[in-house]
Amino acid sequence: IQINQETYDPLDSSNYFGVEPSCKETISRAGFHGKGFVELPSHSLNRVANLAFVFRTLQPDCLLLLAGYPQRILGDYDEKDTKGNYSIWLQDGHVNLWINAGSGGIHLISEMGVNDGEYHVVSVTKTKRKLQLRIDDQLQASKHLPNASSIVILPGSEGGMFLGGIPPTSEYDDLPPEEKISLHGAIQDIVFNNHTIYLGNPINFVGVQLGRVGPQMGSNGYLHEVLMKTEPIGKSFTKPPEGCHRDETGKCA
């Protein structure tokens, strides 16, 4: 197969599942089918920071992003941790954000529901201890981190940031049930501190199609289903076999 005068083998997937090696440097999306995850280097949040990504799903409950030390991510939001972590998930169709800078955390919930299969933008801005959650550029919630702690420190290049799901290990047993549900949808265009995070060189990924849009859903998915169910025009005008008499349904009698 040749595209733009470049030849590649579509069956060569030894390094990337469902991704052509020739485009690995520009992969910015991933398709999830409810049974996998992508692990990337984690990103600390300094005094002034931001993160954002685009996603779509029909699920009311699922994990979108989780970053931090597994043993420090607890289901009890009143528990004080000694290491930083943050996570974003859906519960009852609303975006939930949990951020802890090491001396207690805060929990923000969006006002609008987003599990309609359409693309939505989740953005978080951090200015010292103030956190703001926005969906599609609309402010949803705002809170301040407790005490004087304002920096969320994470492992960095060692990994620890997961998209669309988590590994099936006991380290995450204390997470809320909603955060243990893998995503069925897509995540793309991840940005930390105004820099796009590419997915062409993940630390680990299982059951995820890198570089793909995931399952069909939303308005585009509906159009796709309609086109698939519609009989081709050429077929509808096929000349009937000799001796065939069509009845009122169009079938040969």
User: Which term fits the overall shape?
Assistant: globular
If you compute it from the alpha carbons, what radius of gyration comes out, rounded to the nearest whole angstrom? 23 Å
Helix content: under 10%
In N-to-C order, the SSE pattern is EEEEEEEEEEEEEEEHH
Oligomer classification:
single chain
CATH class: Mainly Beta
**Tally of helical runs:** 2
Tell me the fraction of residues in β-strands, as a range.
Answer: 35-45%
Describe the structure.
- By secondary structure, the protein is mostly beta strands.
- The protein has one domain (27-209): Sandwich (Jelly Rolls), CATH 2.60.120.200.
- It is 6% helix and 40% strand.
- The protein contains two helices and 15 strands.
- The strands form two sheets. Strands 3, 4, 5, 6, 7, 8, 9, 10, 11, 12, 13, 14 and 15 form a 13-stranded antiparallel beta sheet that branches. A two-stranded antiparallel ribbon has the order 1-2.
- A hairpin with a 2-residue loop joins strand 10 (130-135) and strand 11 (138-144).
- The radius of gyration is 23 Å and the shape is globular.
- The relative contact order is 0.25.
- Residues 20-24, 71-81 and 222-240 have low confidence and may be disordered.
- This is Laminin G domain-containing protein.
- Residues 27-244 form the Laminin G domain.
- InterPro entries: ConA-like_dom_sf, Laminin_G, Neurexin-related_CASP.
